[in-house]
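TOKENISE THE FOLD
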Amino acid sequence: MSRFTVRKRKGGFTLIEIMIVVLIISVLLAIAIPNFIRARETSRAKSCCSNLRQIETAKEQYAMEKKLNIGSGCNLNDLVGPDLYIREMPVCPSGGEYTANAIGTKATCSIGENKDGDYDDHVLR
């Protein structure tokens, strides 16, 4: 045998290598998780605004059919039913409650504006 034999390294990772991988994964998660949360709430807010538009359209049809003036009272019971303007009661994906309001005013969600940015406001604009 030669004096200069090559030692074979056993398979596996060193502690430093494992710690670096864990550090990289944790940094990526710290960046990604807030973005996922924001995207989820943004999609909920957009779905809520879609429901509010549906309520507004039903209110307009109801007002035209009943020949109501601006300011006339209207509630969701007048709009929602199997043979009415909306078949099923819309549900806010974030758990808010809808209010139809009077003719000429926009329908609202109880969550409304969160005041921390416009991406998660449940307001019909």
User: Anything to note?
Assistant: The chain has one domain: 18-120. The chain has a mean pLDDT of 87. Residues 15-66 form the longest helix (52 residues).
